């Protein structure tokens, strides 16, 4: 009975682990070792997989309850056990198989589907191959049952026209929903005009790791971008990335082995072009390179989607989790260095001089002809800008700028 409970737990855990895998999990398994690739191949024919698992689980359960029945009958025939003992034994046997072969293994499999799917794929494939000769019989019985017992049964569509009609009708009555749709559409259209530098994470805003990369190298948790960015052996350029979303608790020994190769886009490309390249390459990260081929930042698919669907107005709010503009005194604002110049113009409603730079930091450093330092000040366009350092840090990347509008001189009297 203990062996049969273990067999039933094996099939239950296999079923839950394999069918809980997401698209990203399967993609990682397909590029993994032999057992991981085998797990991905099993899922390519889900009907065969599910039929075999259910068959073996049914066989195991029948054998288990047959043994329970035989033991119960022998206890009753021996006359040495009272009826309450027999009922207690049968009830305990039922609870044991429910908990140890269904609830516990499936719960563990759902928590860690990827490693369990890899570990159980080889024995599961052997048991599936054992029932392959009778699999056509199963398919025939299923087909006949569908045709004879449920001849009018039709597969429910994922989306009906009536669902779209109801959604449109609801959107017409909901002003907030209409405004949200307009905002999302406006963001989508703007992707063609937005430069990748406006959306990217600057190189100093993320951590990069030189191989070999181990879990203890990450420190306390997942990096803010959600990705491990792996460089070449020299540590100069980023060559691959590993998505840690949902995989933090079961990382491999050498993380760089699971990382996927990333692509590159030039600094002058649009966000729409970068997103199209991500979809074509089936990757989630692109490196942004300058005219010298040097990596100046990275752009993730999550950053693009967050910019499209989020209510956060700019990159400062998304990356630094703070307001880009903070009025610290009447007519004086504190502004982050990664604030886009286009947003600066929109915020104050002023016309700015032409500049080849995207961010406020790049503009100030071009005007200064050196790296900005606390205390530097310039007059540019309608603004007087001064470099300041926040009270809680002295890092160059966190330099802030104080802005005030320069009052135009009045006419001569």
Question: Can you describe what's shown?
Answer:
The protein is of the alpha+beta class and 413 residues long. The chain has four domains: 147 residues, no CATH class; 30 residues; 116 residues, CBS-domain; 86 residues, Uridine Diphospho-n-acetylenolpyruvylglucosamine Reductase, domain 3, CATH 3.30.465. It is 49% helix and 14% strand. The chain is built from 15 helices and 13 strands. A five-stranded antiparallel β-sheet has the order 9-10-13-12-11, with helices on one face. A four-stranded mixed β-sheet has the order 1-8-7-6. It has a four-stranded mixed β-sheet with strand order 2-3-4-5, with no helix packed on it. β7 and β8 form a beta hairpin. α1 runs antiparallel to α4, α3 crosses α6 and α5 packs across α6. The protein is elongated and about 105 Å long.
Portion of residues in beta strands equals: 5-15%
Question: How does the overall form come out from the CA principal axes?
Answer: elongated
Total number of distinct structural domains: 4
Helix content: 40-55%
Terminal CA distance: 105 Å
Mean pLDDT: 79
Number of helices: 15
Spatial arrangement of strands, main beta sheet:
9-10-13-12-11
Q: Which regions are unreliable across 5 or more consecutive residues at pLDDT < 50?
A: 391-397
